[in-house]
């Protein structure tokens, strides 16, 4: 198996046509077909099914798309890393951020990364915690910022930030001191929340179980947009970090009450696979994420505390 063969294979898979891939790669079609045949012979599997309309991936081919992408990306990262240093890191960094933090972190993170590290290509994805953890486990990203990562296997975990949970919704101030709500009072409010086993749902349910206070999870929404829509329209309330709805809160459209007695807190951590080497570029972005979170905590944009790093 050769690197060029993997490149050719991915291009054919992308275009669904050997002839179209040959044109884009500036390679004669017979030569390209021979390379793919050699790759199939080396792997002892068929990668494509030939049809009159082009080619389709076999189940083995679909698996190879994933692995080939990772292999070629690792090679590119290695090439960039060996010519990098701490002052001028180079290469691509793929980062997944828990959806609850993306809106708050992205503006400062991407602008600072572009300013400080112009040779680093930072690609950020946001996802609900369950999907984000899967991206990390499958090697689709270099690292992730996700909550309560202690349950994951074969990963390095760097706790970064402890955040508090709020009840967020419309017209919540009545009957409260305007700032907090007792956990036992949450049962009076219909909630929108992700389904199990999303991290925040499991975390809230565990606290409710420990305190023998069942909650009214009336609407299950497995997207941040869906939960935001229901809350903004006054259909339901949500238990979430305050900063998720900072814009609406600042405009006075929503209220946020900090949950107390007991409080609900969770830890956001940077996570990466143990068997994946951290490039200089990844280390630079890791430090930048921590710095950005610390700055937003100081500005009271994030409500929580940056966790001290072990010596």
Automatic annotation (TrEMBL):
Q: Entry's Pfam families?
A: HTH_1 (PF00126), LysR_substrate (PF03466)
InterPro entries, A to Z: HTH-type_LysR_regulators, LysR_HTH_N, LysR_subst-bd, WH-like_DNA-bd_sf, WH_DNA-bd_sf
Q: Name one GO molecular function term.
A: DNA-binding transcription factor activity
Coiled-coil stretches are none
Domain HTH lysR-type intervals: 1-58
Entry keyword annotation includes Transcription: yes
Top-rank taxon, per record: Bacteria
Q: What Gene Ontology cellular-component terms does the record carry?
A: cytosol
Keywords, ordered alphabetically: DNA-binding, Transcription, Transcription regulation
Q: Which family does it belong to?
A: Belongs to the LysR transcriptional regulatory family.
- Its protein name is HTH lysR-type domain-containing protein
């Amino acid at each position: 198996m050769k690197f060029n063969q993997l490149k050719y294979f991915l291009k054919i898979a992308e275009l669904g046509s050997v002839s179209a891939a040959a044109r884009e790669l500036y390679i004669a079609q017979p030569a390209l077909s021979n390379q793919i045949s050699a790759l199939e012979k080396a792997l002892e599997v068929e990668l494509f099914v030939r049809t009159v309309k082009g080619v389709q991936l076999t189940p083995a081919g679909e698996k190879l798309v994933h692995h080939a992408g990772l292999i070629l990306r690792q090679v590119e990262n290695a090439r960039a890393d060996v010519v990098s240093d701490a002052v001028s890191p180079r290469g691509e960094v793929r980062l997944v951020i828990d959806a609850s933090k993306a809106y708050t972190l992205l503006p400062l993170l991407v602008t600072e990364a572009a300013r400080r590290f112009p040779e680093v290509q930072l690609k950020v994805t946001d996802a609900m915690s369950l999907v984000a953890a899967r991206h990390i486990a499958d090697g689709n990203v270099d690292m992730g910022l996700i909550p309560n990562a202690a349950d994951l296997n074969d990963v390095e975990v760097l706790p970064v930030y402890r955040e508090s949970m709020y009840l967020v919704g419309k017209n919540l101030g009545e009957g409260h001191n305007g700032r907090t709500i007792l956990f036992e009072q949450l049962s009076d409010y219909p909630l929108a929340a992700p389904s199990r086993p999303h991290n925040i749902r499991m975390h809230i349910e565990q606290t409710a179980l420990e305190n023998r206070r069942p909650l009214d999870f009336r609407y299950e929404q497995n997207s941040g947009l869906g939960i935001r829509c229901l809350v903004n329209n006054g259909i339901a309330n949500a238990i979430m970090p305050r900063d998720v709805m900072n814009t609406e809160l600042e405009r006075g459209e929503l209220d946020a009450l900090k949950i107390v007695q007991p409080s609900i807190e969770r830890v956001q951590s940077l996570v990466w696979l143990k068997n994946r080497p951290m490039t200089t570029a990844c280390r630079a972005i890791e430090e930048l994420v921590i710095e950005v979170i610390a700055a937003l905590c100081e500005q009271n944009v994030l409500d929580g505390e940056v966790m001290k790093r072990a010596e």
